[in-house]
Amino acid sequence: MAETLFSFDKRNYRDCQTLFRGTRGQEYYHGDFWIEDGSTTIDVRSERKAVGAISIIRQRSAANLFFRRSRQHIREDATDLSVLWFVKRGELAVSNQCGGKVARAGDFIITRSMSPFFMECRTGDDGTHEVLHVTVPTHILRGFVRQDFSTGLFMAMERAELALAETLLTEVFTDDGRIGEASARLLVDTALGLIGNAIRASEDMAPPRQSIADRRLEDVLRFIEVHLSDPQLSTAMVAKGCGISPRYLSFLLRLRDTSFSELVWEQRLAKAKAWLSASDPRDISISEIAYGVGFKSPAHFSRMFKRVFGANPREYRGESVVEEAVAATPAEPFADYPAPYPVSSSLLQ
């Protein structure tokens, strides 16, 4: 459930500077925050939903709001947060050393705390200002948005990815507890990934035209991915499925500096390795994984796995299980002392 970050009206709006970061002063970063004097109605409410280190915040206001972060604030508080703003009602005007931008309903903005800026949240014709914004530690956001946003970023909400991201974030914010923490994190990560894709796509609205060979290669790779679990997968099968000759198939794969067998076995082993790491031996056996990625026999799978990864599947899975168990075991008072009796590795198999 969302919690109230702050709520101001005629009685307490002058306290906004000390209360806008929440009762524990842990949200956002230092800055000057004030509410316009003389407003006939002052009704400002901000609600917050935390998902790990990320906060989703819905802010509604019946008065104009102002926020300023100066270089002095940055020197006092070097918290590096990025804020993703989805404007729903009214306007959001942001000024910094690069100039000014006005975001209207349907626009998207990123601001960053390590760059000075001045922001004005303006009510619209209906007397209301509303935004959904997400505070993200910048080091986390850089995993999704590789472009430079050191002085902010502005985009119109024309791209479908941004609309989908807003929908996902709103669903997480309004959830009443039906979505588990792990699922909420997955949805937020998906939303950030969609935002990153939208930004990348907007940088080049007219991507280079693909050649016929590029399109055929995409068809080939997709066919192999779909049929990877089929032990009968062959060049003849792929060529027929993609409507090309086996010779042309070999030519296309040479564009990737690989051969058919190298590509197939590499993908099968990679998926098997990931499957072994993520699964419980009680739920699925090594033989089932071998057949599931297209090997004709567990013995063949074991030989190839050891040749590539230096350990057979049973050894690899055992090592993964032990590592997870050790990581999950809390430290004990005498954890720094050696165990009195060594444990045979054969017992862990």
Question: Can you describe this structure?
Answer:
This is AraC family transcriptional regulator. This protein is α+β, with helices and mostly antiparallel strands and 349 residues long. It folds into two domains: 3-202, Jelly Rolls (Sandwich); 212-328, Arc Repressor Mutant, subunit A, CATH 1.10.10.60. It is 40% helix and 22% strand. It contains twelve helices and twelve strands. The protein has helices spanning 16-19, 71-76, 138-141, 160-174, 181-203, 212-226, 235-242, 246-254, 260-278, 286-292, 298-309, 313-328; strands at residues 3-8, 32-35, 44-51, 54-61, 65-69, 81-89, 91-96, 99-104, 107-112, 117-122, 129-137, 153-156. A hairpin with a 2-residue loop joins strand 7 and strand 8. Helix 4 (160-174) runs antiparallel to helix 5, helix 6 (212-226) packs across helix 7 (235-242) and helix 7 packs across helix 8 (246-254). It is elongated.
Name a few traits of the molecule.
about 350 residues; alpha+beta; Jelly Rolls; Arc Repressor Mutant, subunit A; 2 domains; seven-stranded antiparallel sheet; five-stranded antiparallel sheet; about 40% helix; elongated; disordered C terminus
Short structural summary:
The protein folds into two domains: 3-202, Jelly Rolls; 212-328, Homeodomain-like (Arc Repressor Mutant, subunit A), CATH 1.10.10. Helix content is 40%, strand content 22%.
